[in-house]
Design goal:
four-stranded mixed β-sheet, four-stranded antiparallel β-sheet, alpha+beta, globular, about 250 residues, Vancomycin_resist_VanW
Length: about 250
């Protein structure tokens, strides 16, 4: 992206295997998911794509004043780099694409970042919901889609602390954590409100709101700030269970 070279941002680029002292948030995401009747091979290929991309991100430090850019760090997924056909969501449908599936990493990272004082400066989410929930643990619409040279995921560290993203794999999951060099005296709780499916002129839609509370750790969990992070409204390409018997 041309703006990487002409803007005044200082992009995070240093990675280290040494972990910062304090963990802010940890999360795990199942590697193989049931996604309708789609090709199981695309799910298997996704694992290869994730492992290649994770190598570019694991251990990245985000120092004060620096901006994290997913696309700048990972680069363009190509066959030459070892990426395979995986499932990607674009132009209103789920289809195969080289490097498909790496949004699972940006989704996980965004969930970690929402539990921190880092400032999200560029984020996109899908305009449609293609698959019924299957073991979903995060609120609908809490992810961050990426597509090289078109949609990036960026956040900036406007604090005086240094942060670090660590990513690794277990047998069934992609796991990640956000760490910091000095413990904060507050934490965040992210939650969903007003989730519902709607049917408008024979088309299904899904909506919700995602909120965040700032909680003081050492004052009995006192909530000192509540904010609306995002409102979601998306077309649904399947029939929700609540309408199956209608």
């Amino acid at each position: 992206m041309a703006e990487w070279y002409i803007d005044d941002k200082k992009y995070a680029k240093i990675r280290t295997p040494e972990k910062l002292s304090h963990r802010i948030k940890k999360h795990q995401s199942v590697l193989l998911k049931k996604l309708g009747d789609n090709n199981a091979q695309l799910q298997i290929n996704k694992g290869t794509n994730l492992k290649i991309a994770v190598k570019k991100l694991n251990g990245i430090l985000i120092k004060p004043g620096e901006t994290f850019s997913f696309c700048k760090l990972v680069g363009l997924p190509t066959k030459k780099k070892g990426y395979l056909l995986g499932m990607e969501l674009s132009f209103g449908e789920a289809r195969a694409g080289i490097g498909g599936g790496i949004c699972q990493i940006s989704n996980l990272i965004h969930w970690l970042v929402m539990h921190s004082p880092l400032t999200v400066t560029e984020r996109y989410h899908h305009s449609f919901d293609p698959f019924p929930d299957d073991g979903r643990v995060l609120p609908f619409g809490s992810g961050a889609t990426v597509f090289y040279n078109y949609r990036d995921y960026q956040f900036t560290n406007n604090t005086t602390h240094t942060f670090q993203i660590n990513l690794w794999f277990t047998e069934k999951c992609l796991e990640g954590e956000l760490r910091i060099n000095q413990e904060l005296d507050y934490a965040y709780h992210v939650f969903e409100k007003d989730h519902q499916f709607l049917k408008i002129e024979n088309q299904f839609y899904r909506k919700n709101e995602i909120w965040r509370e700032k909680i003081l750790k050492f004052e009995g969990g006192k909530v000192v700030e509540t904010e609306l992070l995002t409102k979601n409204f998306a077309r649904v390409t399947y029939q929700p269970k609540s309408y199956l018997d209608a």
